[in-house]
Amino acid sequence: MTEISEELVAEYRENGFVRVPGILTAAEVERFREGAAAYLVQHRHESLEKGGVFSQLVNVWQHDETGRDLTLHPKVARVAEQLSGVPVRVWHDQLLVKEPHNNAATEFHQDRPYWPHTNDRHSLSAWIALVDVPPERGCMTFLPGSQHQTTLQPQNLHDEDDLFQLDPSLRWIPRVTVPLRAGDCTFHNSYTGHMALPNRTDIARIAHVTIYMDAATHFNGNPHPVTDPLNLTPNQPLNSDSFPQPAQPPLSSL
Q: CA 83, CA 64: separation in Å to the nearest integer?
C-alpha cells in the first residue's frame, strides 16, 4: 500500500495541513484536468457558490466517470487515512474553479462548522491541483495549529475579518502560503483555518477536492445540500453508498 513518512504525519498533526507533491502522475493530471474542464462546461450553472468568487460543483463522482476515479483515487485515500489515523469515507467532493482575473479571495474559514456531523473523530480535505497554482493563481494560505479551535460557528467566506472576530487570537498566527504544481496536493484538517488567494492570471485555477470524514460519523440533523435529499434521521450513521469507502491501493510507495 502507499505509505508516507512518519515525519509527514507528525507535521500534519502539528500544523493541521501538509503538502504532498506529485500525488498524481503527469498522465493522470492531463486526464483529470480535461475531464474537469468538460464537466464544468456542462454543469457550471449548478455551482453552489453564489458570491461569484469561484465555481463550486459538488459530488462530481456521482455523475462523471472521470471525476469518480479521482474522488475514489486509492492513493489519495490511503494518505488521508494515514494522516487522520482513522478509517475514512468520502463526505463529498467538489470541483473548485477560479476564473482568470476573478480578483477575489476566498476568505479565512474552517470547513467543519458547516457540516452536519457528530460522533466524528477526524475529517480532512485533499485539495488536488489540476493546473499549476502559484500564489497569483489562487493557492491556499493556512493558519498552522488552528485545528485546535473546534468551537466556532460557520464563517462567512466573503468577509475577510469574520474568522478573526470569532477568535481574535487566530489573527496573530504566522500564515503559510502553499503554492502547488499540477498533481500536487495539500491535505488539511477540517478545523484548520485557511483561505485562497485571488486568481490574477490568464489561466483558470482548477482544483478537485475530496473531503473525507471518519467512517464512524453520524448525521446530526442540521440542513446541508449533500444530506438534504437523503431523508436522514438525526444520529443516523453516514455509511450508505452515498458516502463510499475508497478501495486501498496495491503495494507501492509515494
A: 28
Set of cell numbers at residue 15: 500544523
Identity of the residue numbered 70: L
Q: What range does the domain containing 205 cover?
A: 6-222
CATH number at residue 18: 2.60.120.620
Is the distance from CB of 157 to CB of 53 less than 8 angstroms? yes
C-alpha to C-alpha distances, 211 to 134, 163, 219, nearest whole angstrom: 22, 21, 16
Going by C-alpha positions, the residue among 96, 103, 98 that lies closest to residue 128 is 96
Cα separation, 141 vs 138, in Å, equals: 9
pLDDT tens-digit series, residues 185-219: 999 999 999 999 999 999 999 999 999 999 999 99
Confidence band, pLDDT 50/70/90 cuts, at residue 2:
low
Split at pLDDT 50, 70, 90, the class of 3 is confident
**Inter-residue contact 70 to 118 (CB < 8 Å):** no
State the pLDDT at residue 254: 42
How many domains would you assign to the chain?
A: 1
List phi, psi (to 5°) of 198.
-65, 155
